[in-house]
Amino acid sequence: MKPARVAQGINPLRDEEDKRLPRIAGPCGLVLFGVTGDLARKKLMPAIYDLANRGLLPPGFSLIGFARRDWADQDFGKVVYEAVREHARTPFREDVWRNLAEGFRFVPGTFDDPAAYELLAETAAELDANRGTGGNYAFYLSIPPKFFSTVCENLERSGLSKKPKNAWRRVVIEKPFGHDLKSARELNDVVESVFPPDSVFRIDHYLGKETVQNLLALRFANQIFEPIWNSNYVDHVQITMAEDIGVGGRAGYYDGIGAARDVIQNHLLQLLALTAMEQPNNFDPQALRVEKSKILSAVRLPKNLGSSTARGQYAAGWQGSEQVAGFLEEDGIPADSATETYAAIKVEIATRRWAGVPYYLRAGKRLGKRVTEVAVVFKRAPQMPFTENETEELGQNAVVIRVQPDEGITLRFGSKVPATTSMEVRDVTMDFGYGSSFAESSPEAYERLILDVLLGDPPLFPRHEEVELSWQILDPIEKYWAKHGQPEQYESGGWGPHSADEMMRHDGRTWRMP
Fold first, then answer.
1. Percent composition of the chain: helix, strand, coil (DSSP 3-state, to 5)
2. Burial 160-190 (b: 16+ CB within 10 A, else e)
3. CA nearest to 40, candidates 90, 97, 86, 5
4. According to the model, what pLDDT value does residue 391 have?
5. Residue 245: pLDDT over 90
6. Distance CA 129, CA 117 (A)
7. DSSP-assigned letters across all residues of 178-246
């Protein structure tokens, strides 16, 4: 007799395959503000094409560009085409492109022009009728933060933020979410007065990376790690985001913001929360947010911010074989700018699991290589049956989660050196790499996040509570730095200012060299 499921025409293997398939967005469109920016050209437009190429967008998906340009729809289509051909991850397919391009529209205007929003409303209505978008639109604000409020208020004034019956309207906001706690709260008040909280998606593209999400799998799907993921065994944690480039064309944006606001307040504190959080009851959005918020609210700063923080600016020097200018010599940067291009901070977490374990966070530009990683460094064995000479090349055990560019996990431990008569022990590593372990390639972070917006799936998006808790951590540091002169100069191509090394030496530790 056949099992009931098979007798009913249900194939359990097929069901399991279906669970693994990504969901496809329903009828919808995306309005992209700031289509002339680097983010739109290098990430957003290619991600939209790649989603379409993977069959994850509906046939009638529409993309409306909004910018201060005298473009026709065809001009906008050419801009998208060039971005896709240069930056898309998946092969170019003419049939996919042709169908996608039929839904391209362009609306010229400034962010504060009421007439432009009226034209935008007319364009959306036309697409509803001709492309079947169903009145469902996400408004992606890939624009400077100072315009967030203006755009949201005009979307409300024009009626675009009000969802039709049985439809949805959502807004996507790129970081930074304000420049301090006060401005973040003011921005949130404006945005959530126009869109309900569940319709506001705050993009942190790091949360869309497979390796960041794999932190949860590493911790909670494996019995070997979680029992030692605490202060009994962990000595400290280092979270690093290093870039080998300068500010480039972002000088106008970057000056006055700096490394701490640009990276630590969002990316690195989110990585800290995922590394330190307790296991949620499930992975529903609310359960994840509760556990992350508990950690962020438990973060404590040392009393002496002078010895537990460091900041610097890259100086002229050599980046590999290329001679590069210093930060103060970059176009658009004032000669007396106090904006840091490197920031390092030490924090502790006031929970039973993490009591006494310091977390060191650092981010910088013009450093030795491009790398983002979380290194959980364990305590040394309490007693060693080896001589000092036998262990002089032995460091501390560590689990290193590589977020980018070589996505994977490294386990560092000690092993006996072969072919020696003594018990000489030195560090060795075991590596897991996404590229070599899985046939499926990891989707680009913006692909995952844009699809989640269109699906209305919010687990990877921080709510305003997390944003405010992050600013509460960073604000005292920014205020301290504002009173203490210029950042220290550091050599391009190195690993930051001497004060950052001194901060670690003060604790008897050193920065890990990626």
1. 40, 20, 40
2. bbebeeeebbbbbbbbbbbbbbeebeebbee
3. 86
4. 55
5. yes
6. 19
7. -SSHHHHHHHHHHHHHHS-GGGEEEE-GGGGSHHHHHHHHHHHS-TTTGGGSSTTTEEEEEEEEE-SS-
For the chain, list the domains and their CATH numbers.
23-174 (3.40.50.720), 207-506 (3.30.360.10)
Tokens of 252: 């106008």
Residue 428: helix, strand or coil by DSSP?
A: strand
Highest mean pLDDT, choosing among 188-202, 211-225, 480-494: 480-494
Give the chain's length: 514
pLDDT tens digit string along 476-512?
Answer: 999 999 999 899 999 999 999 999 999 999 999 999 9
Only one residue has tokens 């490197």, namely: 342
* 183: its two tokens: 């401005």
Distance between CA atoms of residues 299 and 473, nearest Å: 7
**pTM attached to this predicted model:** 0.86
Query: Mean pLDDT, to the nearest integer, of 380-402?
Result: 70
What are the structure tokens assigned to 135, written together? 């009145």
- Sequence-separated (6 or more) residues with CB below 8 Å from residue 17: none
Give the pLDDT band (50/70/90) at residue 11: very low
* Cis peptide, bond prior to residue 196, ω within 30 of zero: no
Instruction: Answer yes or no: are the C-beta atoms of 123 and 64 closer than 8 Å.
Output: yes
d(CA 281, CA 291): 10
Is the distance from CB of 124 to CB of 158 less than 8 angstroms?
no
Measured between alpha carbons, how far is 324 from 320 in angstroms, rounded to an integer? 10
How far apart are the C-alpha atoms of 90 and 47, rounded to whole Å? 9
Rounded Cα distance between 228 and 57, Å, is 43
- The residues facing 399 across adjacent strands are 376, 411
Annotated catalytic residue: which of 267, 484, 498, 506? Answer: 267
- State pLDDT tens for residues 60-93: 999 999 999 989 999 999 999 999 999 999 999 9
pLDDT given at position 420: 62
- C-alpha to C-alpha distance for 134 and 358, rounded to whole angstroms: 51
Q: Which run of H or of E encompasses 464?
A: helix 464-482
User: In this predicted structure, what is the pLDDT of residue 2?
Assistant: 39
Distance CA 34, CA 142 (A): 5
Is residue 267 part of the annotated active site? The answer reads: yes
